[in-house]
Amino acid sequence: METAIITGASKGLGASVAKLFLESGINVIGISRTDNTKLYDYAKQNNATYHFIACDLSEQASLQKACKSVDEMLFHETLSKVYLINNAGLVDPIDRAENIEMDDLMKQVQINTVAPMALTNHFLKKASEHHVQLLAAMITSGAAEKPKYGWSVYCSTKASINMYTQVAAIEQEGTEHAVIAFSPGVMDTEMQETIRSSSQEAFKDVDSFRALKENNLLRGADIIGGVLIDILMDDENVKNGKIYDVREYI
Question: Is residue 214 a contact partner of residue 188, using CB atoms and an 8 Å limit?
Answer without folding.
Answer: no
